[in-house]
């Protein structure tokens, strides 16, 4: 007897997303706690892939894993071009960028508190 999909709390989704990104060699992974700051979700995760092919593959595998593990049907945008892919899993929003595109948009600066270690490192 096989177990059905797990219950997807935002923390479980976040853990699964971080594990998937790690497995697929995503770089510079940053998680941002949005609870109390935005109604769009509980967490935002920003990561980079080295090429358009890797960005698209990271996103595709993540969507497949979340569907298999939690039954979560994610909305995905940008996979065709592979410069910036947005994955909306409901409680966790994931952005996967090519490094140049990530540097241009600098989402971390917009969402992270200015006193956080990651924001301080990005400012240097």
Helix content: 40-55%
Beta-strand portion reads 15-25%
* Number of DSSP strand runs: 5
CATH architecture: 2-Layer Sandwich
SS content category: alpha+beta
Spell out the key features of this protein.
single chain; alpha+beta; 5 helices; 124 residues; Beta Polymerase, domain 2; disordered C terminus
What does this structure look like?
The structure is a single chain. With 124 residues, the chain is α+β, with helices and mostly antiparallel strands. It has a single domain, classed as Beta Polymerase, domain 2 (2-Layer Sandwich). The chain has five helices and five strands, in the order αββαβββααα. The chain has helices spanning 10-23, 52-70, 99-105, 107-111, 117-123, and strands at 27-33, 43-48, 75-77, 84-88, 92-97. The protein has a five-stranded mixed β-sheet. A hairpin with a 3-residue loop joins strand 4 (84-88) and strand 5 (92-97). Helix 1 crosses helix 2 (52-70). It starts with 9 loop residues before the first helix and ends with a helix.
């Amino acid at each position: 007897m096989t177990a059905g999909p797990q219950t997807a709390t935002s923390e479980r989704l976040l853990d699964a997303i971080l594990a998937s990104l790690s497995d697929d060699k995503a770089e510079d992974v940053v998680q941002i706690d949005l609870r109390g700051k935005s109604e769009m979700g509980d967490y935002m995760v920003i990561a980079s892939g080295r090429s358009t092919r890797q960005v698209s593959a990271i996103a595709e595998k993540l969507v497949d894993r979340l569907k298999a593990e939690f039954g979560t049907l994610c909305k995905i945008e940008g996979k065709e071009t592979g410069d910036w892919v947005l994955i909306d899993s409901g409680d966790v929003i994931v952005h996967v960028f090519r490094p140049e595109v990530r540097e241009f948009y600098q989402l971390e600066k917009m969402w992270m508190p200015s006193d956080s270690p990651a924001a301080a490192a990005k400012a240097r």
